[in-house]
Structures are given as C-alpha cells and as structure tokens.
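Hi V.,

You were right to ask for the full record rather than a summary. Here it is.
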Amino acid sequence: MRHYQNLQGQSGVVNYAIADDAILVEFKKGATYLYTAALIGKENFDTMKQLAETGKGLSTFISQHIRQLFNRKFN
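Predicted structure:
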C-alpha cells in the first residue's frame, strides 16, 4: 500500500494500492475497500486512480460518485 498524500489535509483516505483493474483504499477508521473497474466502470476507475496518485479528492469522489459500489470490505 502507498501512503495517500492528502494534499487538502481533510481526507479520510490513508493508503491505497492500484492494480491493473482494481484499487484498494484504506480509510482512517481502519476499513479497507476493494473497488474494481468491472463494478465501478472504467471511467470511474481511471478517475480514482488519478486522484489517488495526485493525493487530492479521492475520498470526496468516492462519497459522491462511487458510494457503496465496492467489491469487498476488509476490517
């Protein structure tokens, strides 16, 4: 997992990991979510990937556009 830069300073995201067609996102509250391009769509996946690598806006994008479209939740 890579540390999320959190350039805005208010993100709930702590770490992330990107694969060819999936992204894991770990939040401050301890839960980690798996999102796949097959479930959320390639455009949303590409946006999440870009936001994760940029370190800005990932948590907001997830809450506004992805919501509960995760494949698995790890505690």
